[in-house]
Structure formats: C-alpha cells, structure tokens
Amino acid sequence: MKKVFAFALVFALGTTALFAQEVTDEQFDKFAKAFQTVQQENNKAQMEMVAVIEEEGLTAERFNTIHQASIDLNTESDATAKEKKQHQAALSKLEAKNEKLQAQMEEKIKASGLSMEKYQEIFQLVQTDPEMQQKLMERFQGQGQQGQGQK
Q1: CB neighbours of 109 closer than 8 A, spacing ≥ 6?
Q2: Which of the four, 75, 91, 94, 149, has the lowest number of CB atoms within 10 Å?
Q3: How far apart are CA 151 and CA 147, in angstroms?
C-alpha cells in the first residue's frame, strides 16, 4: 500500500528531552503496547485515506505527485484543472480526517497508561538507540509467541 504523502501518522510529534530520565521496564512495556496499537491504527488510516483519494477520482500516487508539486516551489505541476480540483477536494477531506485520527491516537496512547510526552520521549529514544530498537523487537516477538501459546 502506498503511503499518502504528508498524511502518514507517524507519532514523532516534536522533540522532547531525550535523556530526561531513564525508561523503566513498565514504561517500555506500555510504550510497546501503545506503539503496536498506533501502528495498526496508522495502517487502517492509510487505507481509509487512499479510499478518500480514490473517491475523488485520483490514485494515491497521482495525488502524491500533485501534492508534492503544490508544496514545492521548484516543481511545476502537470496536473489538469480537473485533477487540481480533485486534489483539493481530497486534501480537504484528508485534513479533516487527520485531525480526528490524531485525537484518536492520543486517546489510545493515554489509555495505555503513558502521557503523550513520555510516549514521544520513548519513541525518540527508540528511533536513535539500536539497543532500544532491539528491545522493542523482542517485546513484539514475545507477544507473538504468547499469542501462539509457545511461551
């Protein structure tokens, strides 16, 4: 599935103090659960966004091309007037949908027992620390084995 340019819901909302405090195992477990939920919701959201674009008569790839040209002053768009209108209609719907999705993601993160700030802090650590990345992968592998009754 192609990702919709400018609307991927990757939850790296700003930067926080990366080394503010150590991450406990309990916090990391909560993060891993929330991260997995956010990833699943992100995948669903991307499919929904592609559907919105297609309802307006464009492919996701064409939407991305037109969108890139609309925000890059150095790129001239080859979009027709009809495509520009379709792009704008889809963009309006996507922006409204994106706001709702952001709020839903924040609710899911908070429901996991983490603040947005702590989630973002751990997310940044995982992005920059190979040991944290390995730890996250191990958590996911452990969950998969538990789900299969092997652990």
Answers
A1: 11, 34, 38, 116, 119
A2: 149
A3: 9
DSSP single-letter state for residue 2: P
pLDDT at 74: 87
What pLDDT does residue 63 have? 96
| DSSP letter assigned to residue 22 | P
- The DSSP 8-state label assigned to residue 20 in this structure reads S
CA gap 30, 116 in Å, rounded: 12
The Cα-based distances of 89 to 4, 92, 94, 139 in angstroms read 15, 5, 9, 41
For residues 8 and 12, give the distance between their C-alpha atoms in angstroms, rounded to a whole number: 11
Give the pLDDT score at 143: 64
Residues 6+ apart with CB under 8 A from 97: 45, 48, 49, 52
Query: What is the C-alpha separation between 66 and 80, in angstroms, rounded?
Result: 10
